Amino acid sequence: MKDHMNHDAYSDNYIRAILNTVKSIAMVGASPVNVRPSYFAFKYLAQRGYDMIPVNPGHVGKELLAKPFIASLSDIGRPIDMIDIFRNSSHIMPVVEEALTLDPLPKVIWMQLGARDDVAAAKAESVGIKVVMNRCPKIEYGRLSSEISWMGVNSRTLSSKRAPAPTQGMRLSLNRMSVGGGDTAASDRAAKNKTEQS
Amino acid sequence: MSDRLPGFSTLAVHAGAQPDPTTGARATPIYQTTSFVFNDADHAASLFGLQAFGNIYTRIGNPTNAVLEERVAALEGGTAALAVASGHAAQVVVLQQLMQPGDEFIAARKLYGGSINQFTHAFKSFGWNVVWADPDDVASFERAVTPRTKAIFIESIANPAGSITDIEAISTVARKAGVPLIVDNTLASPYLIRPIDHGADIVVHSLTKFLGGHGNSLGGIIVDAGTFDWSTGGKYPMLSEPRPEYHGIRLQETFGNFAFAIACRVLGLRDLGPALSPFNAFMILTGIETLPLRMQKQCDNAKAIAEFLAGHPAVASVSYAGLASDKYNQLARKYAPRGAGAVFTFSLKGGYDAGVSLVSKLQLFSHLANVGDTRSLVIHPASTTHSQLDDAAKVKSGAGPDVVRLSIGIEDKEDLIADLEQALGA
After folding, report:
1. Which residue of A141, A153, A176 to mutate against B (max B Cβ within 10 Å)?
2. What CATH number is given to the structural domain containing B416?
3. Which of B198, B302, B340, B403 is spaced 20 to 30 A from B161 at the CA atom?
4. What chain B residue is nearest to A46 in terms of C-alpha separation?
5. B1 found inside a domain
6. pLDDT-based confidence at B5, cuts 50/70/90?
7. Structural domain tally of chain B?
8. Residue B115: which domain range?
């Protein structure tokens, strides 16, 4: 674990290693409303084979895509590999603090697009948890597999290999060659400037 | 799987493309189909709701076009792109995401004549008001900013005279005004200038020109730099507010740093309809593979021809930023060190009549209204591309009555010079 993780621009290998190893993902703030980003991401990650657990105290007793809502991380009652937090930056810390009480600890804490709390991140990293902030796991999975290329998005990866045609429920290879040269450094810089100003 | 940095030429060949999963075809197939089957009702609903990646209908997206989009996004250093039917279509789609009736955008006065026309007349009926500024006077952009300003539009290398715009200086004005900078990068192509590296938020192209490069297919593209924050102040409701077309989705919140490209696709292309034919996308993709080779040769040829013309007794002046004596040479050295492009103008001592005579005598140069072909081209802007402007505006935009525009191709430069020599001399 590096002491000072760069949270402005993650290497593809860092993200790839996380998405290739975690199996269970608890999504805090998962919404049953089908136009919310959390619903999109939950459904996509479930289709790509992750063991998804919706966490939202407001919906206990209901299900999200046949998975029962759980009230809190402590109520899950089994080890989880990754916590994906769909909350605003100001609501991150209590979730991270609760995550740090779990036994075993989660391997990864992921904060959604737009969410960033560097203090909470440092706290999690100090006990060996990997942290990703201001990213969406659905977008990153789609990017590294190049599935997102259907939408004209720059996957920043190359491959001369023939991949199998993607079908429903299939895990996709994320091991394409990363392309720093076809970068989106300007976008990363803009995000960094915004963080520094806020 | 190291994070090695491939160069521009590698990206020009590989970015966005991979062997076809079904057949193994190595060239990108032409998916000449209107529509794509759904796996089941849930898959269809997911695609229509933007919840899944995939294809629905070629007016919204097509796999051949998607390869083109990713390739140009990679070459420009953007987060995503959207291909459309023409460069003009790209401009309509971009501004539709930014402008409400009564809003303004500031545009450089030196632009392709077709853009001047589109902005002045066609957009007026949408209630989009263009305010002109002088690209050689950055302060004129600052003075033009009002509370209704929603964007600034410039060309990196400006038509017709190939003048170079100070992108960084104008991007500073845009940032201060809190509006995106749109750069038409058609005449430079990303091989010469990558406007995003200099502060552009959106790049547009006519793919018809140097990117396609062979004068055989129309196309346009919009590249999202992923740099602009659309969420502040409700200024850009197409991106920041819940969209009734998609049951209340907020595009910036959902798609982050490529939300603008998605807005152009699902609100612009879907509803306005200027889709690019997959066949044209294939032709343009094939052209892009050789962009670095062609562009370098065209720049080298252009410089040699500009030098020849500058020394010819019948020529009054040459406007080519690649000449050491040119007004824009310093900017060219900064922004386009590989070459100052292949489109430029010159004027003849014999005025309008000498220009007409020259055009009629040329045997290799083709007299037509295009640029960025493998073939060398010639035109008299005042009577064609810029004919809709009044005389004062013609001169201001670099298309006075005595001006001839060349677009230099990839032929042997000795033959092009010989052709000009015989046409000028006789």
Report:
1. A153
2. 3.90.1150.10
3. B198
4. B52
5. no
6. confident
7. 2
8. 8-287
pLDDT band at residue A169, thresholds of 50, 70 and 90?
A: confident
Q: Is residue B2 part of a domain?
A: no
Same domain, B258 and B111: yes
Size of interface A-B (CB pairs under 8 A): 169
Chain A CB within 8 Å of residue B44 CB: no
Could you write out the three-class secondary structure of chain A?
Answer: CCCCCCCCCCCHHHHHHHHHHCCEEEEECCCCCCCCHHHHHHHHHHHCCCEEEEECHHHCCCEECCEECECCHHHCCCCCCEEEECCCHHHHHHHHHHHCCCCCCCCEEEECCCCCCHHHHHHHHCCCCEEECCCCHHHHHHHHHCHHHHHCECCCEECCCCCCCCCCCCCCCCCCEECCCCCCHHHHHHHHHHHHHC
**Model pLDDT for residues B297-318, shown as the tens digit of each residue:** 999 999 999 999 999 999 999 9
Of the candidates B287, B307, B324, which is a domain's last residue? B287
Q: Do A186 and B74 touch (CB under 8 A)?
A: no
Tell me if chain A has a CB within 8 Å of the CB of B19.
yes
Domain boundaries defined on chain A: 12-197
Same structural domain, B188 and B336: no
Which residues in chain B touch residue A180, judged by CB atoms under 8 angstroms apart?
Answer: 3-5
Contact A154 B70 (CB under 8 A): yes
From B265, B287, B309, the end of a domain falls on B287
Whether residue B2 is predicted with pLDDT greater than 60 in this model: the reply is: no
Measure CB to CB from residue A187 to each of B24, B46, B257 and give the nearest one.
B257
**pLDDT of amino acid B1:** 44
Cα angle B289, B291, B296; round to 5: 145
Task: Provide, as residue numbers in chain A, all residues whose Cβ is less than 8 Å from the Cβ of B256.
Answer: 113-114, 136, 139
| Mean pLDDT to the nearest integer, B174-181 | 98
Nearest chain A CA: its distance from B8 CA (Å): 8
Token pair in block for residue B191: 């091989």
Considering the domain architecture, whether residues B125 and B46 belong to the same structural domain is answered as yes
Shortest CA distance from A142: residue in chain B: B53
Task: Let me know whether B254 and B297 are in one domain.
Answer: no
Domain A12-197 architecture: 3-Layer(aba) Sandwich (3.40)
The answer to whether residue B3 sits within a structural domain is no
B419: pLDDT strictly greater than 60 = yes
Is A149–B11 a contact, with Cβ atoms under 8 angstroms apart?
no
**Global ipTM:** 0.90
Whether A198 shows a pLDDT value over 70: the answer reads no
Subunit contact A154:B78, Cβ cutoff 8 A: yes
User: Does the pLDDT value for residue B187 go beyond 60?
Assistant: yes
pLDDT by residue (tens digit) across B349-401? 998 889 889 999 999 999 999 999 999 999 988 888 778 888 888 887 778 88
